[in-house]
Amino acid sequence: MLISLSISIHLKSQTLDTGVFSLLNPGFKGLEEVSRLHSAVKDKEASEALLKYFKKRTSVINPEVNIERISISKEEQQYADDAMEHKFFSHEGFKPSLFYGKDINWNYWPVHDNELRWQLHRQKWFIPMGKAYLLTGDEKYSKEWVFQYLDWIKKNPIVEKKKKNASKLTKEQALKEDNKVDDDNMRYAWRPLEVSARLQNQYAFFQYFNTSKNFTAEFFNQFLVNVYRHANYILNNYTEDGNHLLFEAQRVLYTGILFPEFKDAQVWRKSGIDTLNSQMGIQVYPDGMQFELDPMYHLAMINVFCKALQMADINGYRAEFSQKYKDTIEKMITAYYSLLLPDLSMPMFSDTHELKAAEVIKNSKEWALLFPGNQQIRYFATNGKEGMPSQIRSNALKASGFYSLRSGWEKDATAMVLKGGPAGEWHCQLDNGTFNIMVKGRNFFPDAGSYSYAGDEEVMKMRNWFRQTKVHNTLTLNDANLETADTKCLLWKSAGATEILVTENPSYKDLRHRRSAFFVERKFFVVVDEAVGSATGKVGIHFQICEGNVSLDLAGQKAYTNFGDDNNLILKTVAGQKQVMEEEEGWVSYQSKQKSARKAFAFNTEKQTNVAVRYITVILPVKNFKDAPEIKASFDAPSFNEKGLQISVQIGSENYKLNYQL
Predict the structure, then answer these.
(1) Which of 126, 32, 42, 53 is nearest to 83 (CA)?
(2) 176-198, pLDDT tens digit by residue?
(3) Can you give the pTM of this predicted structure?
């Protein structure tokens, strides 16, 4: 009752913000009456006319909201109802929604995870409130939304930065000074990414709430001023680079298209389009991967580029984008598909969370609207019912360092997806050489995930654990994180019965890691790891296997699964020198703030000279361990060969000679 009373007082106390008229283009077609009334100093009537104009206009189309086909999920309804009590949903890792006080405290930070505080200011519960209002007609939702909208504006003003004399600062000092703000909340409420997240939904808010009696002319004036403030703030405070910059540019473009009545709308459109066009050439490798080398953010950037093109296309600005822009998006989509595991899930490389088949299908349906003739997109959009999969079964994205070796595109196919390329940007982990292997729909080596992004010491402790090199399926020296990530492809051979991939990374000072992967007869994998250089210490290869019934045979130097569905796997490692198999701590994080225990182990050798350390690991799919054939393997040559490799592998009575020459 107290919340409701304070809201009523707050709404009644709204004043008319006449500053909005100076932000509009007075010559814009349709605003003639607004301009006439404002010139006659009849600002209340002008404000009423302005709201009336926006309610009736049909020249702008928002493809992301169809008012005639609104639906609300059970979860969204809960977010809307929670928000009525000032319990706000802001982050998937923090449920149920948190209470921010009867008198909303936008600075409340119960857990010092940066994402929790940043994402509070993205106001994710506003759209569910809008849906709830539109579907029920209950004014309580619109009344509360207007209150929260204005309360946020009141309590989160822009605070100007006080900069020192730039002429007396070095470049590094100037950059640090530029990042300083006088108000701690500015770092969260007005970080450009959060500003853009709020900005992109402003027109949707108008669509959802403008029929409400609470959506008054007085409120609308403040609403428009807030939209303008947000757009210009981003324009003057773009993030320097990376995915944030692309999100911001796309959302500035949206605003310039959806609110063309603003005097700066053309500037916003041009800024957004120019930034997207230029950054596409900077952030996308020639093979189509986005430079952060994170599949989830690669997907997000595909959608940023697609959304911008779709919004421009449907509103008459298609000519502003070149054919190269569209071709690059298509190349990015092809690269995305090449990383998929057979069940259409995405390996959780870097900061990627679990992305299942439904995500691929949903996105492919959207992409098919822009690329109706692309049969591969059609294949994934229809879950294989129409179109065609890629005619390239296995694929190498050499520039970005993603490789897939697969037996086919069927759901029960066998596949390895390996990551090993240049140093990526912030979201990329030091995991060069790591891989996922899926057989008959089971991912036997899911990547570690990320658990969290940034925050206080406790949050960073968890983030850093999941980012460690040694919790990925790769090689380390003394369990340390990689010093250098710059993997090169030395050989890619996808023709013939056995596919071969050879990569090499200068992982540590005086120690490079050569990893050779053989997909033998497209049935099982043999991975050869060679640590070459004068460095000494413990050289280990690490494996983190899936959760469930997994056994480690430390004496026998092998691990195996014991699932009851005739879909299992044996891993056995043989070394060219004395080795020890040791169990390690194992976790996997499929979603933020969630983790599950799993088996992890390493094969370690003490490297005491400049002689290369060498391992052969056979990864064999079997029905069950009990009836599995014996596995043997050996190096045919006594020492490392810079120009090639020869090994022998025996699976039961079958013998395999595996080799390559560089």
Answers:
(1) 126
(2) 444 444 477 888 999 999 999 99
(3) 0.91
C-alpha to C-alpha distance for 431 and 419, rounded to whole angstroms:
8
Domains along the sequence of the chain with CATH = 1-21+65-237 (1.50.10.100), 240-391 (1.50.10.100), 395-661 (2.70.98.70)
Identify the H or E element spanning 87.
strand 87-88
Q: d(Cα 42, Cα 460) in Å, to the nearest integer? A: 56
Number of H helices, E strands in the chain: 19, 24
249: left (phi over 0), alpha (psi -120 to 50) or beta: alpha
Burial (0-12, 13-18, 19+ Cβ within 10 Å), 297: buried
Structure tokens at 541: 């290869």
Tokens 């009752």 sit on residue: 1
Active-site residue set:
297
Residues 203 and 65: their CA atoms lie apart, in Å, by: 9
Are 404 and 342 contacting, i.e. CB atoms less than 8 angstroms apart?
Answer: no
Query: Residue 288 CB: number of other CB atoms within 10 A?
Result: 23
pLDDT in tens, 408-453: 999 999 999 999 999 877 788 889 999 999 999 999 999 998 887 7
- The answer to whether residues 237 and 245 touch, using CB atoms and an 8 Å cutoff, is no
State the angle between helix axes of 202-209 and 217-236 in degrees (0 to 180), rounded to the nearest 10.
170
Residues listed for the chain: 662
pLDDT in tens, 106-165: 999 888 888 889 999 999 999 999 999 999 999 999 999 999 999 999 999 998 766 555
Of 23, 55, 48, 22, nearest in space to 34 by CA:
48
